[in-house]
């Protein structure tokens, strides 16, 4: 089963999450396929940058509750995006939830259409945005993040840009990204790699310091009775027991 589509144009490798039936939820298969594709790109001198995008109306709905990835594998994927010696550009024309927000935060440049919506839904199923905090906390506004982490409410692309989750938003995301991709094609590979290293140093310090603790927290929460109730309620399309 294909869960990731690939294409290349003038040195830009496009990786499209391609499991629209599950709203591109992060299954173990999808996480593995994306990690392998990124490794391929890193070793290919013909690739200047990577665009991470999607098919369907959702960029990524978060973890696949029926086939969740191993927490260590997901941490490894996020770190691979951050460490990749190539710029990774997120192109979003749909909705982003939970773990998908971590993918977005790991990317270097992020653009979304004005119709996209965003939400950290973890608290609503009894867990916390633990692992995705590794790239998120160093790159976003703390006050905005506190509100969205704690309430799980949806917010729009303008708010995502204000909070630092997006580089830019526009009615035509491809028009927004056209000058970005042109600039990356004009940049020297060595210059891109070393400039990205400067930009990601603080993010990687967070991975080095906190990855083991946050991975353990995620595993503990997902195994808890409240999370089981929250995930069951989500799958049954009902409110969990704690809703007032």
From TrEMBL:
<dbReference type="InterPro" id="IPR051683">
    <property type="entry name" value="Enoyl-CoA_Hydratase/Isomerase"/>
</dbReference>
<dbReference type="Pfam" id="PF00378">
    <property type="entry name" value="ECH_1"/>
</dbReference>
<protein>
    <submittedName>
        <fullName>Enoyl-CoA hydratase</fullName>
    </submittedName>
</protein>
<dbReference type="InterPro" id="IPR029045">
    <property type="entry name" value="ClpP/crotonase-like_dom_sf"/>
</dbReference>
<dbReference type="InterPro" id="IPR001753">
    <property type="entry name" value="Enoyl-CoA_hydra/iso"/>
</dbReference>
<dbReference type="GO" id="GO:0003824">
    <property type="term" value="F:catalytic activity"/>
</dbReference>
<comment type="similarity">
    <text>Belongs to the enoyl-CoA hydratase/isomerase family.</text>
</comment>
<dbReference type="InterPro" id="IPR014748">
    <property type="entry name" value="Enoyl-CoA_hydra_C"/>
</dbReference>
